[in-house]
Amino acid sequence: MQRILDNIIKDTRKWTIEGQVASYIPELAKGDRDAVGICVTTLDGEEFFAGDYKTKFTIQSISKVITLMVAICDNGKDYVFSKVGMEPTEQPFNSITNLEGHDRNIPLNPMINSGAIAIVSLINGNSPEEKFERILRFMKKITGNDTISVNEEVYKSEKATGDRNRALAYFMKSTGVIEGDVEEVLDVYFRVCSIEVTCRDIARIGAVLANAGVMPWNDERVISREVSRIIKTIMVTCGMYDGSGKYAVHVGIPSKSGVGGGILGAVTRRMGIGVFGPSLDDHGNSIAGLKVLEALSKEFDLSIF
Ligand code: GLN
């Protein structure tokens, strides 16, 4: 495994020049375009690392998996999916047109921005601080990493420039999808997207999903088998945004990407995968990350299809 990972990273690094680091959040533009790293966490407790796996990056949309878990734990799946749909979209992750004209004008799915903002509004807590702390605590638990924290510069940058997310959120307030104070909901959303992780942290989240909701390193259950199955299914259909179909054909691993360059993969009964590479394709997915996962999937026959 180690030799294969080293070779995959070596072979895929060249792809980084084909993409661009996200710049619509100004602070993300400082990312290293050439970086590529990976961590694989197997369910029998082995961990493998290659490339720039030590680099910290902001979790961005991979947090949508975490907030969905917390919201379902707080409200039950039936209520959550009465507010947010389960359907994929051919529109970009921050599309406005996604919101109107579909089933009851609810966001299409929890893996795009509108859906995730609605999901964050459902999380229990008496204040935005308490809501955020509950999500952060869950994140620390599911990664087994007590040192996880927010990148304050990215948070400020995102909050200062997040007008499209504001537009989505105010629209959802007008249709009754979001209740309460919109700016408070957005503040929690921006903070959660700005949480800093490494490949190892997201590989561990993937390992919990791969293990049907149980943390493999201590056998503690964090979500039910059913919720784990639902989330992996939505990751297949929606996790790579409007690139999900092609990704399913080429890779076939339930995955979630973020514009910080991370991709989380969950291979049921086998492993969690965390990949990082901030150079992105037109859909906002890590360009080298896609190649790494494609090579890994082929090498170990990981496609679920
Ligand atoms: N924080 C980012 C945003 O709201 C997340 C988007 C992403 O990772 N695709 O735009």
TrEMBL record:
UniProt binding sites for substrate: S61, N113, E158, N165, Y189, Y241, V259
EC number: 3.5.1.2
SUPFAM superfamilies the UniProt entry points to: beta-lactamase/transpeptidase-like (SSF56601)
Superkingdom of origin: Bacteria
GO BP annotations listed: glutamate biosynthetic process; L-glutamine catabolic process
Primary enzyme class: hydrolase
Signal sequence annotation: none
GO MF annotations, alphabetized: glutaminase activity
Keywords: Acetylation, Hydrolase
Catalysed transformations (reactions): L-glutamine + H2O = L-glutamate + NH4(+)
Assembly notes: Homotetramer.
Similarity comment: family membership: Belongs to the glutaminase family.
Protein name: Glutaminase
Organism: Clostridium collagenovorans DSM 3089
Gene that produces this protein: glsA
